[in-house]
Amino acid sequence: MEPSEIFARLEKQFAAKVSDFKGDVQEPYFSVDAEAILEICRFLRDDAELKFEVLSDQTAVDWPKEEKIQVVYHLYSYAHRHQIVLKVDLPRDNPTIATAEGIWKVANWFEREIFDLFGVIFEGHSDLRRIMLPEDWVGYPLRKDYVEQEEYDGISTQRAPLVDKLMR
Amino acid sequence: MNETAQDQDTGFHTEDMTISVGPQHPSTHGVLRFVVKTDGEVISEAIPDVGYLHRSIEKIGEKVTWHGYVPYTDRADYLAAMFANQVFCMAAEKLAGTPVTRRGEFCRVIACELNRLASHLISVGTFGQDIGAMTPFVHALRERETINNLMEEICGARLTYNYIRIGGVGYDILPETCTRISEFLDHFEPIVDEFNRLLTGNKIFIERLAGIAVVSKEDALQYNLVGPNLRGAGIKWDIRRDIPYSVYPELEFEIPVGTGHIGALGDSFDRYWVRIRELQESCKIVRQCLKMLPKGPAISKVARKFKPAAGECYVRVEAPRGDMGFYVISDGSEYPYRVRIRTGSYTAMSIIDKLSKGIMLADLIVLIGSLDVDAPEIDR
Are both B39 and B70 inside the same structural domain? Predict the structure, then answer.
């Protein structure tokens, strides 16, 4: 199915909860309402003509100028060989969204990584802990305005430039 | 520590144990750790603890130029650096509309398939070693050494290649190198059969693998397993054939899938067997490429100040550990706005918790080996 047809089908089913379809780009995408993400994902997986049985990738992008964090879902259907990209805009000061773990189990780990590096809270997640960084790390490194803490556990995270060291 | 319910009946005390496997365990190939809860030797839970090798490659991507990021992609998966090079360059080319020369495409495929051979040899060799077969490991590494020599001849590096550049490849493959590659293939193809006689057909090896850690088709999709792990579960899906890129549509090769002919469909043996057969397929691909290698430049003209138009794309290639995807966003500047690396090992790791329930402690090693997880690729 062509991406535009996929979007038309969703628009018929969910009306205003999906919007901003962009079809003239490399991977066509559209925006989804944060509250409606679960029902739309479930529909995308279970509908016989869509059948997106695979969550290829789930990640986030920080857009500080627009004051938003965008969670991006890349879906693929092996059966019909089509793909679609969903984007959900969340407010930057309190990014919260329901977990897709109940629809695709792999979302469990993807969401842990997004939580760890972007600070997006996934409601209903079974095991929302940091995955890459230590539990007591401060801040979310993949945000654009992230400043590394100067010291972790008594170890400095800063290092003098090598050139300075040589010149000394 | 909990006493189990049977204690009152039998009078024996069995206590749950919590064991830390890793981070420096030989079978984990790199640094990763499992917190394992066992009742005797039977695992009730194995919780993976990753992140020891997190080098924030995604964040580095936002700080260096497009050309400058290529060497960093090498480090995402050091066993298959060529594929990360390729997928990032494909993403940059797609965004900027840069053409790739035809000779460049063939050089890429030759280099990638040689890299796949090297990576699969490590995988099957260490797999044998992990469960006690020392000799096959040495045989596999001996062959890999020759491939490393060939790689050194092609691009000057043995592990982190930085060979594939935006617009083509860094260096042309010389005619004498082509001869040496085909000589190596002549030598290597019989070695695969020797390897099968040595390891694959071994009764102990088969009994350790058959029927262990079975992945059903539904689980493979739910957990988004990719590459040999997905094909081992009986799903015929290969990016090279199904979402074709580069010159793969012009090449002939088979896609091996698991059949469950020894144990059950989707067990550890199936995943192993898919890798062995992919060795032969890769040889076939390299041979065809050497024959078809066209004349011409290896790299097209690319601006040194590379600035693709604003936009985003998601590109995937079939790496040795399956579908490797780069989600790259450009804002039109000299630096990528966001680089996201999706790797096969990361999703394969997430299924271990589920598969490990109820298997023996020794089989956990088989499970990790058969999924071919690679610590640097998980953490990135």
Answer: no
Same domain flag for B118 and B29: no
One-letter amino acid of B52: Y
Tell whether B42 and B124 lie within a shared domain: no
Minimal-distance CA residue of chain A relative to B236: A78
Q: What is the pLDDT of residues B130-167, one digit of tens each?
A: 888 888 889 899 999 999 999 999 988 888 888 998 98
**Chain mean position to CA A99:** 11
- Looking at the structure, do residues B188 and B318 belong to the same domain, yes or no? yes
**C-beta atoms surrounding B52 within 10 Å:** 18
| Chain B residue numbers touching A24 (CB-CB < 8 A) | none
Task: Please answer yes or no on whether A27 and B58 come within 8 Å at the CB atom.
Answer: no
Residue B156 region by backbone torsions, left for phi larger than 0, else alpha for psi between -120 and 50, else beta:
left
| Residues A108, B350: C-beta atoms closer than 8 Å | yes
pTM for the full predicted model: 0.87
Q: Check whether residue B127 and residue B11 sit in a common domain.
A: no
A132 touches B: beta carbon within 8 Å = yes
- Whether residue B196 is contained in a domain is answered as yes
Total structural domains in chain B? 2
Edge-first strand listing for the sheet containing B42-49: B16-21, B33-39, B42-49
Residue at B16 is within a domain: yes
